[in-house]
Each structure stands twice: as C-alpha cells, then as structure tokens.
Write a structure and sequence with these properties.
heterodimer, A: 258 residues, alpha/beta, TIM Barrel, 9 helices, B: 267 residues, eight-stranded parallel beta sheet, 44% helix, 14% strand
Amino acid sequence: MIVDIHAHLPRPFRHVESVDELIPTVAEMLEMGQRAGIDKQVILALGTSRTSNEVLKELADRFPDQIEIFMGGLCTDPDCPATLEKCVKEYGFKGVKIHQNLPWFPLTGLLTCHSLFRKAGELDVPVLTHSWHQEEGLVEILPKMHTGYFPMVILEELGKRYPETTFIFAHAGGMWVKAFQAAKPYPNLCFDMSGFDPERGIVEKAVEVLGAERVFFGSDVPGRSYVAQLAKVRYADISERDKKLILGENAARLLHLR
Amino acid sequence: MILDMNVLLGRWPFTPLKYETVEDILGLMDRAGIDKAVITSLNSVFYYDAETGNREVGKACKQHPDRFIPFAVINPNLLRWKEHLNECVEEYGVKGIRLHPDFHKFNLLPDRWSGGQVAELMDEARRLELPVYIQTSLLDMRHHPGYCFVWEVPILEVAQAIELYPENTFIVGGGRWFGSRAQELIKQAERAKIDNFHIATDGLGGPWDGVRGLVKQIGSSRILFSSRTPILYSEASKLMIEQSRISEEDKERILGGNAAELLGLDA
C-alpha cells in the first residue's frame, strides 16, 4: 500500500459554502494520485477553525477508502488539545498538522505547544509540522516565510521533551543534512520527503542516518506532482524493503491503517 | 525516440551523487528508458575554465555518438570564449550553447561588464545556428550550502533577453518552482509577442498535472523533456510527461520529437 502522508486540498476551503463545491476537484486530485499508484492520501488541514475540521471530516466520509485526515493545530488556542481529542475519538482524525501561516505562528514558538504535544502522545497520533531549516546566510531568500524559520535546537528539544509523541518534520526539515543529524538521537523524530525537487541523495541520506523506519513518502500536492515526488523513493539507491517502508508501511503502522 | 535535453557529466561539488562517469550516466539513461541525451559539463560550471569540461563532454560524445549530443557551456566572462566555441563546433560537433549566468555571474542584458560579450555571443550563436540553453539554476536555492549560495537568474531577465534577441532560439530551464517561473515567462512572451523559446521540463515539479496546463497554454511543440540527470532522478520528469492527461501525440513530441526537430536529427 502506498500512502501519501502530506497532501493538501486543491483550493482554499475556508470559504466554501458546501463540501459539494470541492468534490469534483478532490475527485480529480485523487484520480491523479491513483494513476501514480497512491492508495491513500493524508489530507492535512491548513486552517484551524472548527469549520475546516468539519469540512475535512465530510470529505473523508465521501472518500473513505482514499482519504485520511489531520486536524489543523493551533498552538495558541488553549482548547486545541480538547479539540484534538474530539477530532480523533469522534471524527477519526489520524493526526495534527502545524503550519506557520494559518494563523501567523512562528515555528520558533513550537516549544510553547506543551499541552497539544502531550495530548497527541496520549492519543497515540503523530504531530506533523512544517519545517524548513535554512543555512545561515540563506534566511533572506524567503522573507515572506520567516515564520517558517526552524532552528535545529527546537527539533532537538522536541525530541528530548516529548519522547512519547511522534513528530514528522515536513520537507526533510529543509536543510536536510543538518536536520537528519539533529534528529538522529531521538527515535520519535521522523521526516517526510515532500515538497522539494526530486534531488538525488536526500532519501538515501535519510535512510543512512535515521533508518527507513523514520522516513515517510509525501507529495505536497497540489503544489507538486505525485509522480515526481514518488520518484524520489522509487528510484532511490536503497533496498526494496526500505522503499516499501517509506512508501506506505511506516504510515500504515503509525496511523493504524488497514 | 526519447531524447533528454538536460544531462550533465562531471562532479557535483556539494554531495557525492555516485554517478560521475560516462558509464554511470549511460546506466541511468538505460534504467530510465532514455535513448539519447543532450549532455553538458558540470565541470565547466565549477572549474576555473570552461574548456576542460567541454572537452571531456566532447570526447564522451565521440565515443557514444548514438547516445550523446554535446552542448558547450560558455562563460562570456572568460577570454577567448569565441575561439573555444568554434573549437567545440568543429572538433566535437556541438549542437548548442549552454549558459549558467547564475554561477558565472553575468547579466543576460547589456550591462557595463558582460553585456557586450553576451550580445556578441548571441550573434555567434545565430551565425553557427546554435540554440541557446539558459539554465536559471541547477538546484533549489534553499538547498545551496551556506558557503556557496548563488541566486538563480531572474526569469524577467531571461524574458527580456529572449525579447532582445528575437532571431535566436532559446531553451529555458531551472530549479525550484520553475513551473511558476515558466508562467511568468509565458506572460511576458504574450506581452512582447515572442515565441522564440522552448521550456525544459525538469524543474516543473508541479502542480499535479503541470505538463497538461503548459500544453493548454502554449501547445506541445515548445516543451522539451529534460531530466537534469544526475542531480535529479532521471525518471521524475519523464513520468510527469508519460502520466499527464495529454494526447499520445503530444507526449511523443515532448519526449523527443520536438528536440529532434530543433537539433535537426532523425526522430
């Protein structure tokens, strides 16, 4: 089974009147994923409102065999742990996604999300967070994304403080070499390979440093192509066993999929 | 025939890619089902002189004329680039010029440093009937090591150069969200009413069927399959085309027909 652990909805859905408006585009997106060989797609919320969670839940109900869902996590909301509990227990959400843009939340503030991370560990669901560590001197490339700045010390602290919570850092952590090294001592820290160009060597290095069990396939559609992102794993110089783990078995185990 | 417009021979200085020799590259092409490739030198991007790398590529093409087609990396900041280009054409049968204005630090537009040389280079390309391949970047800038950060070539500069030299034929490719750069290029081309350029596919990356979107916009005849082997996985860009919801005829054109026509080869 191939599981894409990092997908988004094809258009902002905060303002849709009805889920029906989204169905044709979502169906098209899922069809392209299936053509590429993807069995299940994990749709990550980019919004944090109750509405966005309910929209996701309804979509998952419409495509029960193809979609799994992660709630949008808002670290500054004191009710967020309770919302996560409800989403997981009542709606079947499989995890929580933290993004720096909605609403404005610099990732340097991640260590304030104590109660949410503890709750995720208690519920046995992963926390998937946007992460993009940039080397010194490169930060000014993306001034608009400064809230996504992600120092490695935070990654290490998450590993130390919340050993019972599984974290998946998106996009190989940005500057991947440093991110893999920082995460290595903490078995609860994992990475998805979504979003960047299909550069040779990154998946290979992740497997070498962390082991394949801590690496996940993700596409970051609709901004990216399913097949180009899949090629990173399918054509990496790693064993067939490791490819299977990365492409789906790790996600199936972590999300308790059948 | 599957013809890849962007394969590189040489050493990638930032991390070992394991595929640095002619045999390595041929192995990757075989695995991906690529019959023939335009090949340029990575060493010509990073060595002090471009000549050494171009000669390495020229020799590889002489050994494997059925698999490789040489383009010469020209750095107009280096003295005697014109003599070297002519040597590449006469000695190795070079079929095009490859420019890396980002690493080689020149402006495609007339400026006080290299602009005059670029104008002369375009004249020479026309005289020799060689297309000019502008690589706006080799790698997502955000993955550049901090000690060697190089800004990509602004796509507006590329668009203006294409407009400035309407008699030249260009190929444009790049990294990191090149799909949105291509959109900007198309927008500028519509404004200037120019179509003397082709788009290389290796940097497109998205959205989920970006190839179909491009075909709808500009047709299939100006899109060229390119993989950026070995920096990127050779299969990625090819699969984007093969799995796109475009006609088989369009796929054949993009995967090799257009390139064969551009380079005067039998398809």
